[in-house]
Amino acid sequence: MTLRHAILGFLSIAPSTGYDLKSYFDGSVRQFWTADQAQIYRVLAQLAQDELVSIEVIPQSDRPDRKLHHLTPAGTQELDHWLSSPLESHTVREPFLLRLFFAGRLGPAGVSDLIDARTAAAEHQLAVLSAIRSASGPPGPDIEGMLRLATLDNGIRHTQTEIDWLADLGRSVTTLNDREDRHV
Prior knowledge:
184 residues, mainly alpha, two-stranded antiparallel ribbon, 68% helix, elongated
């Protein structure tokens, strides 16, 4: 997935400003796709240059003019092509797992601290996702609403699974440490 396609997807739902798009990212897909404001504005400029979006300038007297981006027919075609194309394979890069792979040199206490820090971060993420889910209410009668909530539920389940795995790992580290202490 590219940021380009994510923005086209959001614009297929409703015309938006760059600020609106950042809010949509943060309130819906953040658990699996993030974007900062500068990235969004760069991609919007490229989409406009490629004539996949049009820009409606809305004058404002007390602030800079609003630039509302609309999906063009070519933008809709690009989005539909991407949606129906074969899935790209992706390489997962997970900094925590790489760190954990080498963390044995920290000893059991250092590994436990690493696990505790990751658990706290995952619990925070779960709270954020759960709050978004609670605010979302039940899915609407359409497939779009159902799928948007399904992606949120996926993030909740993955995060809960990670928390459970971290708890199991923490218990294993403690058990291993206790065995080593008895042999010393």
